[in-house]
Write a structure and sequence with these properties.
Number of helices: 34
CATH class of the largest domain: Mainly Beta
CATH architecture of the largest domain: Beta Barrel
Shape: globular
Strand content: 15-25%
Helix content: 25-40%
Largest sheet: 6 strands, mixed
Strand order of the largest sheet: 2-4-3-6-1-5
Oligomer: single chain
Number of strands: 47
């Protein structure tokens, strides 16, 4: 019964003894592996230990009197407690524990007071702050438990984040600000000379002496001779005094860090230290920079006052100009030149641009203010606190606000088109204040809803992947995934280097120019190898992946690759499934429920309305059909009327393709194929707000089944009084509104266009038109909505493998498109392949059809708008494509939020979604048709069928029966025996193996379909699962983690792996004695 039921309350989560909880406060003087534990709390937690020691020392005789002494807190107790605590770590946990770094071990230090002290650098991992958060303390009791806490869970060993391999113990806030402040340089000015600027020193020590004597200013630019301890070569370095101070704590292996420290650069430096020097030195380095950071922030006195908030002088002018542009747009609308939707979009656009221009001016002003020593700017630039957005609101303008949606998604306009012009320094008017509150309140409501959703997603992910454990070193597969740089809209989103780092190569990889072996087959691709591959012209590398791993239970180490938390190859027994689920679920709360933030929409559209050349080179355009026409300015341009036009820019010397793009239908083309273009040339542009239909021939227009009140209605624009014909869905499904172009002389139809619902007709019947004229506008929101569900709902939709709310119709074959009749309100589309195969598709008339007659399309290309369903990709393009699609699409959502998660975590989940196959034809196997079965079982059974025979006629044999499956050898032996007796021999045929198709299951279904009924029952639909298990007399082998937790066993992962269970541990003498005995017995034998 839900969370409070038997399974989840008592079996999966139990309360434990020896635990305490208290408020946390910051402990800046602690070492990374320490925490402050209040004395009274420690005395209570370690009571049994103290009692035992009291009796051992002979201070008291009985347990009862010992208890009294502990309760009275006599001085001897503290003495004993100090001893007990030596080498006895405690576990600290902060709820909610979203990933494994939510529980870490610390060495306790006894402190006065009642609050637990926490090291400031581990707050990120716990997601803790000191505004009253509470944490729980647990005591590991057994020797094994203490050992594991010290070796595996100690905070100083958990420096890297398992989700992406980046350091997670990164200085934040004050520390970053302090380090940024001391490493910032400053030039002398007239009224403010910098002491010691430009002096040269022979060693860092000399600088420190000079600085302490007050001869140097902290920010002065100086030169210093620095000797590299690695190569013992020295060089003169231009740097600042503060940077020399910082380098005193940097380990020698890293070299001289001569840069302005921000949160980002600190993370990289910590990563480098970790790689070069290992954990112990990194922990020391972290403590040193913590000290330095806090000290410098305190010494620098970095607070800010109202004068630091600089308002740019040209704000009023920018706002006036924008207001003018908005009025002009409104004028156009009132004259009926543009639709309401266009007016809205253009208004939003103008304000977004003004806002970003203002922000740019503002950033320039504040950056140059006081040589960049403006406190607010320093806080933002260092990454300590605040963002561009927030500074914009303080001293620019607040800009456009979102309006809360009415439930049921009322209208696509979710931005209030009148922006807030004031900023917080000037103060808001009453109206502006209320508009703001209303957006802020929605944000709070959203957050609360989101947390619950994200928690549920994590739970489902853990459930589906919980039994994925590393069970073998190498499964020996020959398959892999082809990894290449991920490119979206011509930009490299993720480099090849990032995608292959820490994976194993499938084949040997050679450098294409020098022929050197970069990495051997099956070896890990290290940083150096990845760098070499990234710098070479290699476009793609085939890497081992969890998705292609052939391990039967769990996965193998080679396919998984590097364990991101250690930076080394993953070890046997690592519970990679749970790590993957936590890595994906933990940032879930940061994903939005809403699809986008303020200004997101408006900004996006302007980028996507033109293509400019990104490189110099030769322009090549494929499959182009155009008509000539004059554009707005009266220049002649070509209008593209083909749907699948692609352009490439090719390097003139090497012939390498530099960039490719699709040119959309209806675009104005300004350049000719085959000519050279320069970087920044405009190649084409199009109307971002409307999809259009363009006439391809000159002629007269004839309308067909465009009837008022039936297939279209006249919309009168309230403000302008102009009427527009808008196509509506007709009750009479046989009527299909079309516009035909009739040749003026011969009166023959030249071309006909069918109109989708929602199209605005901008021409009249009988009107004479030229080629390239616009006949119909379809507002983009309804024309090409695509799927803009972002954030959590999209992640859920993908992991549950749901069909999207508005799926596209997808072609299954390559071929030429032609249109058929209309059947029951659906338009028939026929695709004919080159081999003459026909496929028929029905697309509802209300949908916008993306293809035209005679277009050539490829398999997997959508025929109508909407997002493609994963099931379609699986059926048409196969399992590998659907796996790639799922991984890339989920990554896209997280990337929009700036969350980095390694691909392999998504791959683990997708592998679990694709574990099963459905039997199509059982052949001679024991499967049933339509039965869902594990891939491994299916392969095994089919291998059994190999070289087996099925008896079709037993002849005179007594051993064989008809329909029996036997090996070829047995049949041969039996037949030769029968021949000897001159009896009729048995006849047989080859056994046929089963055929199957890959299934794609959502994570909920996949968890319920797991082999273990205990695990499934504790997840969802308990009664149903238990009933089915009982009816089919299921057994549970306790292979996964969850089942073992429920029955109270050690989990079969990590140190609990079953292969360690039989190991016995001896001390050295016993071990040698045992070995000698064994040797002796063997010799005797």
């Amino acid at each position: 019964k839900g969370k409070q039921g038997r399974f989840r309350q008592n079996l999966l989560g139990k309360r434990v003894d020896y635990s305490a909880r208290s408020v946390i406060v910051v402990g800046p003087e602690l070492k990374l592996h320490e925490c402050g534990l209040p004395k009274d709390m420690a005395a209570e937690l370690f009571k049994p230990f103290i009692i035992r020691k009291l009796i051992e020392r002979g201070i008291v005789k009985t347990v009862k009197s010992a208890k009294k002494i502990v309760d009275k807190k006599e001085p001897v107790v503290w003495d004993i407690l100090e001893n007990v605590l030596k080498g006895h770590p405690v576990l600290l946990n902060r709820a909610p524990t979203l990933h494994r770094l939510g529980i870490q071990a610390f060495q306790p230090k006894l402190i006065e007071g009642k609050a637990i002290q926490l090291h400031p650098l581990v707050t990120t991992a716990f997601n803790a702050d000191f505004d009253g958060d509470q944490m729980a303390v647990h005591v590991p009791l057994g020797h094994a438990a203490i050992l594991e806490a010290q070796l595996l869970m100690l905070a100083s060993h958990n420096i890297l984040n398992p989700a992406n391999g980046a350091p997670i113990t990164v200085p934040s806030q004050d520390m970053v600000l302090g380090l940024y402040y001391i490493t910032k340089g400053r030039k002398s000015e007239k009224d403010k000379p910098m002491k010691g600027e430009g002096r040269v020193f022979y060693s860092p020590e000399e600088i420190i002496i000079a600085y302490n004597e007050g001869q140097l200013d902290l920010h002065a630019w100086i030169k210093v001779r620095w000797t590299d301890p690695r190569s013992s070569q020295s060089a003169l370095i231009e740097t600042t005094v503060g940077r020399v101070l910082f380098n005193e704590v940097v380990p020698d292996e890293v070299g001289f860090v001569n840069e302005l420290l921000t949160k980002k650069s600190l993370r990289d430096i910590i990563g480098r230290v970790m790689k070069e020097c290992g954990t112990a030195k990194t922990a020391k380095f972290l403590d040193d920079i913590k000290e330095l950071g806090f000290m410098s922030a305190f010494r620098g006195g970095l607070s800010f006052n109202l004068m630091d908030v600089v308002v740019p002088g040209d704000k009023d002018e920018l706002v006036k100009r924008a207001q003018g542009e908005v009025d002009e747009v409104l004028g156009n609308y009132n004259m009926g030149l543009i639709t309401n939707n266009e007016r809205y979009n253009q208004t939003i656009d103008i304000w977004t641009h003004t806002n970003s221009r203002l922000t740019a001016r503002l950033m320039d002003r504040i950056k140059s203010d006081n040589q960049g020593f403006n406190s607010i700017y320093m806080m933002m630039d260092s990454g300590a606190r605040g963002s561009k957005e927030q500074i914009r609101q303080l001293s620019g303008m607040r800009g456009l606000m979102a309006k809360p949606q009415k439930s049921g998604g009322g209208g696509g306009q979710d931005i209030i088109e009148n922006p807030i012009l004031s900023n917080f320094k000037e103060g808001l008017s009453i109206l502006e204040y209320f508009i703001s509150t209303h957006g802020a309140r929605k944000g709070l409501a959203d957050t609360a809803l989101k947390t619950a959703d994200a928690g549920y997603l994590t739970r489902r992910l853990v459930d589906v992947a919980q039994d994925v454990v590393i069970t073998n070193d190498d499964c020996g597969t020959l398959r892999g995934l082809v990894a290449s740089a991920l490119v979206k809209n011509e930009e490299i989103v993720e480099t090849l280097h990032d995608r292959i780092l820490g994976r194993s190569a499938v084949h040997d990889v050679y450098h294409p120019q020098t022929g050197d072996l970069l990495v051997a087959s099956g070896d890990q691709i290290t940083e150096d190898v990845a760098k070499a591959i990234g710098e070479s012209p290699i476009e793609e590398v085939e890497i081992r992946s969890v998705l292609t791993c052939e391990q039967r239970h769990g996965v193998c180490a080679k396919c998984y690759g590097r364990n991101l938390a250690t930076g080394r190859m993953v070890q046997m027994g690592e519970a990679v499934g749970v790590i993957a689920a936590q890595s994906i679920g933990e940032p879930g709360t940061q994903l939005t429920l809403r699809t986008f933030h303020v200004g997101g929409v408006a900004g996006k559209i302007t980028e996507d309305s033109q293509i400019t050349a990104k490189y110099d080179g030769k322009l090549e355009i494929d499959e182009l059909r155009t008509v000539k026409k004059k554009d707005k300015k009266g220049e002649e341009a070509e209008v593209v009327i083909s749907r699948s036009t692609e352009m490439r820019i090719v390097d003139n010397n090497t012939g390498i393709v530099l960039t490719t793009s699709n040119i959309p239908y209806g675009a104005m083309l300004y350049k000719v194929s085959g000519k050279n273009v320069k970087k920044g040339d405009l190649i084409c542009n199009w109307d971002p707000y409307n999809a259009v239909i363009i006439s391809e021939h000159p002629g007269t227009l004839a309308f067909e089944s465009i009837e008022d009140g039936v297939t279209f209605r006249e919309q009168i624009d309230e403000q302008t009084g102009f009427t527009e014909k808008v196509i509506v869905e007709s009750r009479d499904k046989k009527k299909n509104p079309m516009i035909r172009i009739v040749d003026g002389k011969s009166k023959e139809d030249l071309k006909s266009y069918s109109l989708p619902v929602g199209a605005h007709i901008v021409v009249n019947e009988g009107q004479k038109i030229n080629a390239g004229d616009i006949l119909v506008k379809i507002p983009r929101s309804s024309g090409k909505g695509g799927d803009i569900t972002g954030g959590l709902p999209r992640v859920t939709e993908l992991f549950e493998a749901r069909n999207p709310s508005n799926p596209a119709v997808v072609s299954e074959i390559d071929g030429i498109v032609s249109f058929g009749k209309i059947k029951r309100g659906n338009r028939e589309i026929i695709v004919e392949s080159r081999t003459g195969e026909h496929k028929y598709y029905l697309v509802p008339l209300s949908k916008h059809i993306l293809v035209q007659e005679n277009d050539f399309i490829k398999a997997g290309q959508p025929l109508s708008d909407g997002s493609i369903s994963p099931g379609d990709i699986l059926d048409i393009q196969g399992p590998t494509r659907v796996q790639e699609y799922l991984v890339d699409e989920v990554q896209e959502v997280y990337r929009m939020q700036g969350v980095k998660i390694n691909d392999k975590h998504f791959e683990v989940i997708v592998r679990q979604m694709m574990r099963k196959v459905e039997i199509e034809d059982p052949g001679d196997t024991r499967f049933l048709e339509r039965q869902a079965i594990n891939k491994a079982d299916f392969m095994e059974e089919n291998d059994e069928m190999y070289d087996k025979m099925v008896v079709t006629n037993a002849g005179d044999s007594t051993v064989l029966k008809e329909g029996q499956i036997v090996t070829a050898r047995k049949l041969r032996d039996e037949n030769s025996a029968l021949k000897r007796k001159d009896q009729k021999v048995a006849e047989a045929r080859q056994a046929t193996p089963a055929t199957s198709r890959q299934l794609l299951m959502g994570i909920t279904r996949a968890s319920l379909q797991t082999d273990s009924f205990i695990s499934a029952a504790s997840f969802q639909e308990t009664t149903k699962v238990l009933n089915e298990a009982a009816v089919s007399a299921k057994e549970d082998n306790l292979k996964g983690l969850k089942e073992n937790v429920i029955v109270g066993h050690l989990i079969p992962a990590g140190t609990g792996s079953r292969r360690f269970q039989k190991n016995l541990v001896y001390n050295k003498e016993d071990y040698t004695k045992l070995l000698a005995e064994r040797m002796a017995t063997q010799e005797v034998e």
